Amino acid sequence: MNSVIELLKSHRSIRKFTEEKIPHELLLELVRAGQSAATSSHIQAYSVIHVTRPENREQIAELAGGQGYIASCSDFLVFCADMKRPTDAAERTGANVVRGMTEQLLVASVDTALMAQNMAVAAESEGLGICYIGGIRNNPQAVSDLLQLPEHVYPVFGMCLGYPAQDPEVKPRLPAEAILKEDVYSEDPDEVEAFDQTMQGYYQARTGGNKDSNWSQNLTPLFDTKLRPHMRDFLVKRGFEMK
C-alpha cells in the first residue's frame, strides 16, 4: 500500500496532548488543505471557528459533556455548516434567494464534513493528533451563542488538534465485505457477528479484561433512547427549516 493509504488506515482519536503548540502557519496550511476537499457546486458551505480564549474553551468543554482535552489541546476548532455566506452572495447578485431548504442543510453538512476530514488527514500527515467532538451538539444553542453564530449557520462538530502525548492502538473497523455491496443492498448478520467477536477481543486486550462488550452492545445507548431530540427544533430556529 502507498503511504497515503497507510496513513488513512492508521487513524486514532487522540485525547492527550503535549504542551507543544502548532505553528500558526501550519494551522493555516491545514485549513487550506481542508478547503481543497470536494464541495457541492463549489458552494464551500462551511466556516471554521478557531477558539483561542481559554475561558471559552473551558466552557465548550463543559457544554460538550466534560471533555477536558478541548481545553488542553494546542488548538480547538468548531466546524460550522454555513449557508449564510453563499445565499447572501447569491442575493447580492439580485437573485430571489430561497432559504431553509432541506437540500441546503444536507449540502452544508456534507461540505463541512468533507472539509474537516481533509484537514484531519493533513494534520495526521504532519504528525499531529486529532479528535472530533460531536458533543458540542449536546448544547448547540449555547455553543452558537458563545461563538456568535448568525442565522443559517450551525455548529456541526469540534476538532481537537495537537501533538500526541499517547499512542493508542488503531480501533478495528467492520470488514470491507460488510460495507461493500454488489449491485443491491444485502444483509450481513454473519459479518456483524464476527466483528462483534473482534471488538470483544479488542476491548478485553485494551482494558486488561475490564471491559466485556462488543460493537453491537456499544450501539445500545445510541438507539434505545431519542438521541439529541433538540436538534430538529434547534436547526429550524437557525433558519434550516427543512422545507
Automatic annotation (TrEMBL):
It is an enzyme of class 1 (oxidoreductase). Its EC number is 1.5.1.38. InterPro entries: Flavin_OxRdtase_Frp, Nitroreductase, Nitroreductase-like. Gene3D superfamilies: NADH Oxidase (3.40.109.10). One of its GO terms (molecular function) is FMN reductase (NADPH) activity. Residues 9-163 form the Nitroreductase domain. The keyword Flavoprotein applies. It comes from the Bacteria. CDD domains: NfsA-like. Pfam families: Nitroreductase (PF00881). Keywords: Flavoprotein, FMN, NADP, Oxidoreductase. Belongs to the flavin oxidoreductase frp family. This is Oxygen-insensitive NADPH nitroreductase. It comes from Vreelandella halophila. The lineage of its organism: Bacteria, Pseudomonadati, Pseudomonadota, Gammaproteobacteria, Oceanospirillales.
